[in-house]
Every structure is written in C-alpha cells, then in structure tokens.
Amino acid sequence: MEKQVTRSIALGMAVVVILWVGGCGSPSIPGSSSTEGAVAPAGAGKISGRPGVVGLAFTEALINSIQGDLDSFGGWRPNDLLFGKVFENRTNEELGDLAVVRESVEAMKEDIARIGALDTFNPELAKAEADLDADPFKLWSPSAESKLQEGVSALRGYRESLIQGEAKFYPNPENFARLLNIYITLMGDVHERLLAPAGFFKSDNVFYYGHGAALALAQVFAAMQKDFTEEIQAKGLTKLMEEAQTSLDLAAQMRPWIVFDGGDDDFRANHRLNMAAHLNEARTKTFLMLEALKQPQP
Q1: For the chain, how many helices (H) and strands (E)?
Q2: List of residues 6+ apart from 85 with CB closer than 8 A
C-alpha cells in the first residue's frame, strides 16, 4: 500500500511538472517546427551561381526559398484548412519567407534588372511579382500554390534569360544599397513583432514568422556576396557582410521544440528575444554597410 501511494505521488508530481513546462512555452506541436522541408540557413549547396553570370546566385536564392516551401511536407500551409491550422508554426515560417522574396523580386523588377526609370520592365520579373503578390491564403480559383508555382516558373524563366544573356542584372552600388535598405526595413519589422507582447497562443507564431524571414535572408545575403562582390570589396564591407551573415545563420539555426517565453528573472529561455537579438545584430551590420555605401570614394 505504501509503495502504491509513493508511486501515485511520484506520478502526480511528474504530471504537474510536464503540464507546467508545457504551459511555460507556447503551444507548439511536435513535428510542426521548421525542420520540415526547411532550407539550409545560408543556402549552402543550393545557390550555385556561375562565373560570368551575374545575378544568377541571387535569383536562385529566391527560387529555392519558395520552391522549398511548396515542396515541403504538407506543401504550402497558409491556405490549408487542416495542416495550416494545426501545424501553424510552419504556416508562419512560410509567410515570413514569402515576405522577403516578395520585396526582393520587386526590387529586381523595379531597379536591378533595368538601367533606369525609362527602361522597360523585364516581363518575367513582372509576372513573378504579380504571381507572388497573390493572396497566400486563397484555397482555389486559383489556389495560392498555383500562383506561387507560376511565380517560381517566371523566376526560372528570368534565370534562363540571364544565362542566355537576354536579361540583365546590374550589381551597382545604388542597387546594392536598395537591397540593403529593404532588408533593414524587413528586419526592423520582424524585430518589432518579436518584441511586442504576443500572448500564450501567439508567441510561437511570431517566432516562426521571424524564423522564416531569417531563413530567406540568410540565403539572399549569401547570394549577394557572390553577385555584389565588387561593391562589397570596393567599400571594405567584407567583414560587416560576414558578420551579418553569421547573425542570420544563427537565427536560421534556431529550432526549438517548444517556443519558451521566459521573463528576465526566469530560468527558462525566451526564444523570441533570442531571435530578435540575432536579427537586430544583422540589421545593425546591414545599416553600417548602407552608411558606408553613402560615403564618397576617397
């Protein structure tokens, strides 16, 4: 009888501990984390680029980001009535990824792929922008997946045009500065989301939105180091670029099973604040690069 009582007490204490630990973190679900079909932080082995084909690495980074989402387990989640609602961590991760790709494609269409305001838009980039801007939650007629896949196909068309010498990608200081400014704004937006009070049921959603943005940013920063080499070296930005890349890689590598939201005097981690710290560090380095680009050549 005494053994049974002891065993019951131990079991009860174990249940309390499990419930307490589970309640400390956001209600993440095992298997819903970013490990499903996630892209490697810096796009290693996926962003190839080719000697003499400027812009190929950057274009492939954007293709890989969205295609990775479409090919992941469960496919595109935001418009999914089952997986998108139950496994919402991946849903928010894909939305963060899409935000980076959309802004990047717009910059390519508006500036990077043409000489000036009087030059015509590249038709493949114009189509890619329109398709990627479609409602990511739309279920059918047409579905979000079909529009995103069309956007990726248009990007692939632009990539092939680059290879054939029929499309352009101008890696000048102005275009590099345009991209850096876009990413500073994006990282600032994600940073504010991560720091704002989220509540018990939203903390993991905010974290994984930031994680998706970090994954995409890690890829495009790795690609910029290939396609904007001259601009980086001319202003002595190599070290700053590497430091920004490191911070983005660290953010992209965060894969907690449960997203904790511990306070200042708590022994539990605060994953949102850790993610915010990495992204803010990358943002600071990116801002310093942008300021250096504004300085006249000696």
Answers
A1: 11, 0
A2: 91
The model's pLDDT over 75-127, given as tens digits with 9 standing for 90+, comes to 899 988 776 566 688 999 999 999 999 999 999 999 999 987 788 999 999 99
Q: Tokens at residue 243, please?
A: 């430091």
Q: Are 67 and 183 in contact (CB under 8 A)?
A: no
- Token pair for residue 125? 């980039």
Exposed e or buried b for every residue in 167-197, given b needs 16+ CB within 10 A? bebebeeebbbbbbebbbebbeebbebbeee
Rounded Cα–Cα distance for residues 179 and 217 (Å):
11
229-260 tens-digit pLDDT: 999 999 999 999 999 999 999 999 998 877 76
Which residue is listed with tokens 């660290």? 250
Using alpha carbons only, give the angle 22, 28, 31 rounded to the nearest 5 degrees: 120
Tokens of 253: 């590598």
Which residues are 63's β-sheet partners? none
Structure tokens at 251: 């953010």
Residue with tokens 């595109």: 76
- Token pair recorded at residue 264: 């200042």
Strand partners, 270: 261
Looking up tokens 């269409």 gives 109
Which tokens go with 157? 């068309």
Q: Alpha carbon 243 to chain centroid distance? A: 17
Angle at which helix 144-164 crosses helix 88-107, to 10 degrees, equals 40
Q: How far apart are CA 18 and CA 185, in angstroms?
A: 40
